[in-house]
Task: inverse folding
């Protein structure tokens, strides 16, 4: 039977999709705008991608993203006011607000995903939420297999679906949580048809415990893993967070053998995550969205893994705050790197600019889309970092000053010549004026961001630190304690 008017099949299909989109409230103005696929790792250091220079790790799919897009080598999370820095990091990312303005636990602020939704995007998430179950429905229209937060064995996680704006329909992961999240992301990419989408896939990997499916074949030999160049058996003084859970994952003093074994398991988990990301990228490539999707890969923080004698991410060193950030998509240079400095909370304001989405009025992030057109374009001239009231830092293009107010300690690093932060120049007379000017910059940045924490305290604590007694390392009959002088404490 011939149609009465000459409408092609493609046009007819298009009309049906448009009608379906309008029926679901999709804004016709949003048509043609790029999609967003945001892949977000948990505690993945910036130096864990093979294509960006890690000599031993295997990350063929992150390499694929690096080759196809722009890699930021100076992207950071700003810090945390609590040990579980996943929570503030995700709150900053989603709200576009800085560390001193967010509600860390419940994400009461308006979010960027909600703004994308208002602009006609279909908003979807699967993965680790961690910002209060009630806030998820305010940000996303669809959420499947959500891990509500905290930690757990990824082979046995309780997951939830979003139903009528609330987390309901609890189910157990039938496979590794990372694979369950990848399955949901793939299902969404395969089934989504009308209008642009914002798909957010925050993993709970490679956060410890570093558990991968038992049959995952790749294993790293600890003997072949290089020790971090800034490895130390113990942090040289009390940084204010020496015995938090993460620091107890390995005993003191940290040994090269223990750190290499720990890194071997961490790298294995990253390679497993990389494999699952590869499945999602394959599904995107095979979908109708392949050429009009901006793909972002980043992480909520780094982690120390033996650097500076630390294991966790409760510090303001580069290994813990610098994050991988790969962005690819239409119009974005492929296979290039940029030294433009930015925070995670600048990413969604930038994507909003690219997609013509007006963000929440409370968003404070910087639009660095100029860098996506020209990798030489700078973003932020300096960065402020903070951890509770015990650490503050500022960096500019070359220098970084870290201040520990509670123990009256200061570090100055030349990041250009010492990117591993191993040589403290703060006491060197030739750098005295630099310490002064960077301290002023730190104070000025604190004012700008609304950080009232003092950089000095009236009565500093002793800086020296002794590890707590470790049961397994203690002999059954203890030798008598010697009286120690103030300097030894
Ligand atoms: Ca994290």
Result:
């Amino acid at each position: 039977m011939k149609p009465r008017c000459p409408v092609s099949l493609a046009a007819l299909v298009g009309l049906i999709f448009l009608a379906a989109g309008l029926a679901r409230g999709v804004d016709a103005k949003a048509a043609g705008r790029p999609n967003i696929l945001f892949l977000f790792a948990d505690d993945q250091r910036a130096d864990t991608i093979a294509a960006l220079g890690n000599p031993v790790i295997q990350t063929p799919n992150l390499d694929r993203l690096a080759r196809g897009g722009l890699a930021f080598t100076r992207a950071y999370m700003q810090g945390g006011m609590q040990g579980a820095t996943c929570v503030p990091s995700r709150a900053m990312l989603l709200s576009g607000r800085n560390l001193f303005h967010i509600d860390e636990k419940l994400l009461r602020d308006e979010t960027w995903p909600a703004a994308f939704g208002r602009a006609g995007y279909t908003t979807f998430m699967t993965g680790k939420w961690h910002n209060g179950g009630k806030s998820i429905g305010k940000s996303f229209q669809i959420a499947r297999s959500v891990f509500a937060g905290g930690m757990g064995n990824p082979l046995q996680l309780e997951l939830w679906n979003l139903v009528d704006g609330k987390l309901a329909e609890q189910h157990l992961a039938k496979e590794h949580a990372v694979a369950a999240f990848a399955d949901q992301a793939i299902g969404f990419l395969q089934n989504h048809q009308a209008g642009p989408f914002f798909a957010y896939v925050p993993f709970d990997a490679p956060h410890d415990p570093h558990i991968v499916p038992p049959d995952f074949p790749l294993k790293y030999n600890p003997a072949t893993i290089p020790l971090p160049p800034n490895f130390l058996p113990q942090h040289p003084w009390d940084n204010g967070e020496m015995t938090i859970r993460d620091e107890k994952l390995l005993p003191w003093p940290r040994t090269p053998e223990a750190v290499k074994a720990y890194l071997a398991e961490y790298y294995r988990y990253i390679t497993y995550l990389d494999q699952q990301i590869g499945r999602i990228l394959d599904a995107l490539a095979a979908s109708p969205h392949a050429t009009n999707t901006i793909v972002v890969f980043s992480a909520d923080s780094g982690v120390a893994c033996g650097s500076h004698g630390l294991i966790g991410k409760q510090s303001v060193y580069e290994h813990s705050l610098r994050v991988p950030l790969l962005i690819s998509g239409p119009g974005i240079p492929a296979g290039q790197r940029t030294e433009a400095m930015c925070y995670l909370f600048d990413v969604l304001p930038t994507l909003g600019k690219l997609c013509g989405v007006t963000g929440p009025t409370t968003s404070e992030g910087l639009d660095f889309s100029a860098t996506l057109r020209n990798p030489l374009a700078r973003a932020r001239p300096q960065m402020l970092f903070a951890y509770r009231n015990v650490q503050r830092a500022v960096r500019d293009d070359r220098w970084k000053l870290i201040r520990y107010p509670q123990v009256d300690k200061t570090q100055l690093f030349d990041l250009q010549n010492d990117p591993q932060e191993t040589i403290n120049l703060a006491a060197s007379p030739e750098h005295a004026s630099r310490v002064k000017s960077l301290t002023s910059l730190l104070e000025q940045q604190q004012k700008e961001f609304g950080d009232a924490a003092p950089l000095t305290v009236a009565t500093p604590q002793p800086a020296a630190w002794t590890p707590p007694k470790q049961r397994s390392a203690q002999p059954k009959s203890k030798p008598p304690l010697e009286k120690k002088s103030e300097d030894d404490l």
Remarks:
- Residues 386-467 form a domain with the Arylsulfatase, C-terminal domain fold (CATH 3.30.1120.10).
